[in-house]
Each structure stands twice: as C-alpha cells, then as structure tokens.
Amino acid sequence: MDKILFLSDFSKTAINIHEQMKTLFDATFLGFDLNKARAFIKEEKPVLAVAYVKDLPYESEHALHLLLGAEEIPFILIGSKDECHDFFNQGNIKKYIITPIAIKDILSQIESTVDIIECRLSKKEKERKEAEELAEMNMRKHILVVDDDIVTLRTVMNYLKDDYRVTVAKSGTAAISVLGKEIPDLILLDYEMPVCDGVQTLKLIRSEDKFKNIPVFFLTGVDDSEQVRTAVELMPEGYILKSTSQELILEKIKDFFDK
C-alpha cells in the first residue's frame, strides 16, 4: 500500500478521514508537530502528505507553512477556499480539496493524485483506456489464419498482430468451427494440411451461403505451378508463399483491404 502522511489537529472529522484513508493507504496520522513530521518524511519517505487545514490555530498553521517551505514532498490540502488560499504560493501543493465535500470524494481525489505521482492510471482511467483499446481492436480487420504447423501459426500471427485482430485454427474443421462464431474479413489458409487440406477446406467454405463470400488467401510452402493452377480454379483472392518476407505479406494484405 502507498504510504501517506496525514497532518491535522485532532478532531472528529479528521479522525473519520484518517480511518477511511487507512482502507486504501498506509496512512499515518500526526498532529502539526514540525519535528515529528520532518522525521517521518525523512525516515518513512511517504509518497504524499495530506493536510486537513480546517479551523487551524496559528501554531499549527505556522508549522504547516514551515513544513511546506522546507520539504519537497507533494502535498494535498483539505479545507475551505479561504483556508486553502492562505497556502496558495507553495509550489509543492499538488491539489486543493475544497470543503464541504464527502469523505469518499476526498479519498477519490487523493487516490487519483497518488496515481499521477506514481505514474499510474486511476481505476476509472484504466477502465476507459481498456474500453478504448477494445473499441480500437474491434475496429481492426479480423484475419483467420489456418495452418496445422504451430511455428507457422505463431510466425504469421506475430506478423499481423500489430495491425489486425488475429484468430488462429490448426485444421480445416477448426476453421469451420471458428466461422460459426464470427465471420472474419480475410482467411489465410494453408494449402497443405492433413485430413482436410486447404482445397477441401475452401470447398466447404464456398458451399455455405453465409461463408462463401469470405475472402481467402492460400498459404503454401511450395511454389508449384500445378498447385497454383488448382488453387486459382477455386477463385481465392490471393496466393502467398510462406517464404515471402513479412513486409511483402503485410503489403499484399494491406493492398487487398485498400481495394
């Protein structure tokens, strides 16, 4: 848990704030004792100091001014607008939390500030970022790669993953199963597979009305004219040799989608 120093005169409200803070942080409650606060900051190195400045007597206010001037630790001040304004010229104050405000909202603002200081995203920011990434991913073209060779699957997936949403299948029957759940924008289909090879798999795809218009590129490790002729007769959208470089594979797929 993040270590926080909570400075306040002892009041019912301050005690309630501290009790709630302890549910989220390793929070230590000290009064405005200058020497104790400085010793704690030096020895424990908290990430943040939070000062509750409501109705401070002169001695506590003076101690806080000295502390703000001497220590580089980031601070949050909690109090009325006028009370916070008395400290406005202190550069290490990261946030003013203006009262009256619910304790849960105080905690939320402290948590957000700690995340910023520690270069972390808040929970809401994480959720927003994850939602944006998911939306961006769903907008990518979806490519199904079908090959019985694990190394080829891994290699092609690594080629594509930065630009496309990729699903893999290790056989023709597995590919048909995938199509039953989601229609991809393109299939990269291994020509030579055991049991149900690329030709048979493509025939199955073309025989189903809801699958027949899915674009297919054949993947093959053999540059054989007879094989190419057979593949062309099935009218795939393309034909890619597995020995083709990553750059040329990506270029060919991009050109296809651009058209």
Structural class: alpha/beta
Which regions are unreliable across 5 or more consecutive residues at pLDDT < 50? none
Radius of gyration: 32 Å
Which range does the strand content fall in?
15-25%
Number of domains: 2
Question: Outline of this structure?
Answer:
This protein has 259 residues and is an alpha/beta fold.
Mind explaining what this structure looks like?
The chain is of the alpha/beta class and 259 residues long. It has 2 domains: 3-129, 3-Layer(aba) Sandwich (Rossmann fold); 140-258, Rossmann fold (3-Layer(aba) Sandwich). The protein has 11 helices and 10 strands. It has helices spanning 12-21, 34-44, 58-70, 81-85, 103-117, 123-139, 150-160, 172-179, 198-207, 225-233, 246-258, and strands spanning 3-7, 26-30, 48-52, 75-79, 93-98, 142-146, 165-169, 186-190, 216-220, 238-241. It has a 5-stranded parallel beta sheet, with helices on both faces. Strands 7-6-8-9-10 form a 5-stranded parallel beta sheet, with helices on both faces. Helix 1 links the parallel strand 1 (3-7) and strand 2. Helix 1 (12-21) packs across helix 5 (103-117) and helix 8 runs parallel beside helix 9 (198-207). The longest helix has 17 residues, at 123-139. The relative contact order is 0.08.
